[in-house]
Design goal:
about 450 residues, mainly alpha, 15 helices
Length: about 450
């Protein structure tokens, strides 16, 4: 990332990362599609149950993804400055944090699963299945988080192809197991949850294998498994603000999900299907934000500030083109894709409202994701996290309590997405003008 042309390296980084995220989301999409089509009269309730878990699972996983961003940046800076010792310490420290954190959160989640999900206005026919799905998912949390931290190590090294290969393999396994558990064993949400856990375990094992065989600085050695506290502090300095942002962001989405659930099982099922389509657009834009973080982080570590500026411009330009194509595709084929989950015309029309409003708003998300990624590459994580928490999360909570409370419709609720994402893009741009990291940090050593 520190030598040669950047535009093709950004695309070479972003495309596998986007496809990896899409494949990861297909785990959940496969769950929804299989239970929506092959569980008979329970189909609608099963879809609502799986969909009700989405924001809660996102809260947990994305919180740790925030910490893994710290791993990404620390390793990227170390790669740029050719500091192999820091790469080693960050790798092994992150592995321990992932596994121990997974066990702790899983134990807490198992205790509070029932009360948390019952508080979300889930219909009576879906709430029991929602709790069952969540409990099974929690059992696999240590390996799920391990995969995400392993992938962060590869991203920091500039490699997104190997995580993509791992997800391709485990994704095929997931779909096969979904069909096996539901069609052959007559299971419902417990079957698709078990399939998701097993497939995530496979992907984490594959990445561990590649890390053990690595011939560069990112080589895993169980004898070196220990927490390096100075490195952990560096990781947390960047990761904790991102964790807080993800946690508050997901908490706001839980409030929105509760509002969706209050509109009935049909609306909840339609929204669940739409989420599994619109999220593909998010992973495309997020891949350019991650690319900007890694390219900026490596070049900041190598003291090549001009390449950091160039990375920001190229990530925005390339991201707008690719994201625009994805948004257009989803709007044109959105109804056909929704029919894959459930052919009910009413569910398709409801779900299409969400697809159109959120995917178009993702063009705003692209700008703030890339600009935030640029700031994180310099080690600036707290201020963009605060801006995002105040704008996106604050607006969404207030919107549910005011606009949605007054009009109480799915359309009025979904309108909060373009409003909150658009305003956040404006504020992140203003923050970038204030921080001006290329000028202020250009003469300082990388963290």
């Amino acid at each position: 990332m520190t030598e040669g042309s950047l535009w093709n390296k950004i695309l070479g980084f972003a495309f596998p990362l986007a496809f990896t995220g899409i494949l990861q989301q297909l785990f959940n999409a496969a769950d929804v599609a299989v239970v929506g089509n092959f569980t008979g009269e329970l189909g609608e309730a099963c879809m609502a149950a799986v969909g009700a878990n989405t924001p809660l699972i996102s809260l947990i996983v994305n919180s740790f993804l925030g910490i893994s961003l710290g791993t990404n940046v620390v390793i990227a800076n170390a790669v740029g400055s050719k500091d192999e010792e820091t790469v080693q310490k960050a790798l092994h420290t992150s592995m321990i944090v992932a596994v121990i954190g997974g066990f702790i959160v899983a134990a807490i989640g198992e205790i509070f699963a029932g009360p948390i999900l019952r508080a979300q206005n889930i219909s009576d026919e879906a709430v029991g299945m929602a709790i069952l799905y969540f409990r099974i998912y929690l059992l696999g949390l240590p390996v799920i988080l391990l995969y995400n931290f392993e992938a962060a190590v590869f991203r920091g090294m500039g490699n997104t192809r190997i995580p993509f290969i791992a997800l391709v393999i485990s994704g095929v396994v997931n779909v096969g197991l979904n069909v096996f558990f539901v069609l052959c064993l007559n299971r419902t949400v417990d079957g698709v949850a078990t399939a998701t856990v097993i497939s995530n375990m496979i992907s984490s094992i594959i990445l561990l294998f590649f890390l053990r065989k690595s011939k560069n600085a990112a080589r895993f050695d169980e004898k070196k498994l220990r927490i390096d506290w100075p490195i952990l502090r560096k990781i947390l300095k960047i990761g904790l603000p991102a964790l807080a942002q993800s946690a508050v962001f997901s908490s706001a989405n839980i409030i929105i999900q509760s509002a969706i659930n209050s509109l009935g099982t049909s609306v909840a099922a339609a929204s669940s299907a739409a989420f599994n389509i619109e999220i593909f657009s998010y992973y495309v834009l997020n891949s350019f934000g991650q690319a900007c973080t890694t390219v900026t982080g490596q070049n900041y570590g190598a003291r090549k500030i001009d390449r950091c500026r160039k990375a920001l411009k190229l990530c925005i330009i390339e991201g707008v083109v690719i994201e625009g194509m994805m948004v257009l595709f989803l709007i044109v084929f959105g109804k056909s894709l929704l029919a894959v989950f459930n052919p009910d015309p009413e569910l398709i029309e409801i779900g299409y409202i969400r697809v159109v409003l959120i995917t178009t708003a993702h063009l705003c998300s692209l700008f703030y994701d890339v600009m935030s990624g640029y700031l994180r590459g310099y080690g600036i994580s707290l201020s963009p996290a605060i801006v995002t928490m105040v704008t996106i999360c604050g607006i969404r909570v207030v919107w549910v309590l005011t606009v949605f409370a007054k009009y109480h419709s799915f359309m009025s609720l979904m309108a909060v997405y373009p409003v909150s994402l658009g305003l956040n893009a404006v504020f992140i741009f203003l923050l970038l003008l204030i921080k001006r990291p290329a000028k202020k940090l250009g003469g300082n050593p990388a963290p």
